Amino acid sequence: MDKKRLNVKLVKMSYEYKEKLIDMLEEWKADIELNNTNHSPWAIFKNDYHDFDRYLEELEIREEKDGLVPDSTFFCLDTDRDRLVGAVNIRHYLNGNNYLTGGHIGEGIRPSERRKGYATAMIALALEECRKLGLNKVLMVCDANNIGSEKSIINNGGVFESEITQDGSREKRFWITINEEMVETERLVLRRLMPSDYKAMAAWDMDERVYKYLMGSACKTPEDPLVWLPKKDPNSRVNILMLVTEKSDGHAIGIYALNHDKSRDVWTLSYVNRFEDWGKGYTTEGMKALIDHAIKVYGARNFEGECAKVNTGSAAVMKKLGMVYDHDSLYSKSDGSETFESEVYILKK
């Protein structure tokens, strides 16, 4: 079969495709029993298709429950042959259960149609569905020894991030960029922070001077951020973490962030720069652009920032951003080693 001439489309399951579904799943389940292959995507196997109404009703998750996030399930139809060749399940966002090993897309091709290019074609179509969901970056995970799946991911622009071991199984993580969310200023470029940025972060994360007034503590090794960094969703609409680089030479300056407290409808700003870039006006320039971006893209209106009273530099930044003093407060370092009297500044747009 000529891989370049595959005519496929994604379809939602209905009575129109019932017999084709049964044909595919019976072949697939026989292979699983015979060769102990995996059930991917799990969504199409979780219910008994003999009760087809229930199968349709429970095929997709409509709202987050019991740690499971909303998803969409599509079946790949070869239109030339009028035959279902595979299926793909798309999680609308990531949470604690699937940050590391689940990913956004779970996919599988029926045994008789593997190694014909269908997986690559199906993932490409799935990425278009991810684009419709507003996803900019898509995480895909496969077994470390699944060469076919790895190739289909790479064929769609997947960039290897890391290999992890979960419950005794080795899995590879890949990110596919659909759209790079970027904010630019005269001197800076801000983009979503990714796990692969951990080495650049060492320039400030391992510097005790940088952490003088921060709640956390300086890292001991460059790898320390990998405890939390892979668990951050770069598509999050409430936790915006941006790596900041200097345009002239590309070096990483720091991380600027906005976090949305939905209960108060307030975006809390935070920032950290490497020590060598203090006093250059980068924070004011970058945070102003990020605030404007949040207003335009996320509908942000209310902003809040807090700094230690002795941290006059940070207070000056907030004033330059147009923020005004609101009230006094207190905060402590996460290890309890020090408590600071602080000032809270607000900005309403």
Q: How would you describe the shape?
A: elongated
Q: Kindly provide the name of the CATH class of the largest domain.
A: Alpha Beta
Could you tell me the CATH topology label of the largest domain.
Answer: Aminopeptidase
Instruction: Give the low-pLDDT segments.
Output: none
How many structural units, i.e. domains?
A: 2
Write down the Rg: 24 Å
CATH superfamily annotation of the largest domain: Gcn5-related N-acetyltransferase (GNAT)
What order do the helices and strands follow? EHHEEEHEHEEEEHEEEHEHEE
Q: What is the level-2 CATH architecture name of the largest domain?
A: 3-Layer(aba) Sandwich
Q: Find the count of extended strands (DSSP E, 2+ residues).
A: 15
* Biggest sheet overview: 8 strands, mixed
Distance between the termini: 59 Å
Mean pLDDT over the full residue set: 95
Q: Strands of the largest sheet, in order across it?
A: 8-9-10-11-12-13-15-14
Helix fraction by DSSP (H/I, runs of at least 4): 10-25%
Strand content: 25-35%
Structural class: alpha+beta
Description:
With 349 residues, this protein is α+β, with helices and mostly antiparallel strands. It has 2 domains: 175 residues, Aminopeptidase (3-Layer(aba) Sandwich); 167 residues, Gcn5-related N-acetyltransferase (GNAT) (Aminopeptidase, 3-Layer(aba) Sandwich), CATH 3.40.630.30. Helix content is 23%, strand content 32%. The chain has 7 helices and 15 strands. The strands form 3 sheets. The chain has an 8-stranded mixed β-sheet, with helices on both faces. The longest helix is centred in the N-terminal third of the chain and has 18 residues. The protein is elongated and about 70 Å long. It starts with 7 loop residues before the first strand and ends with a strand. The model has no long low-confidence stretch (mean pLDDT 95).
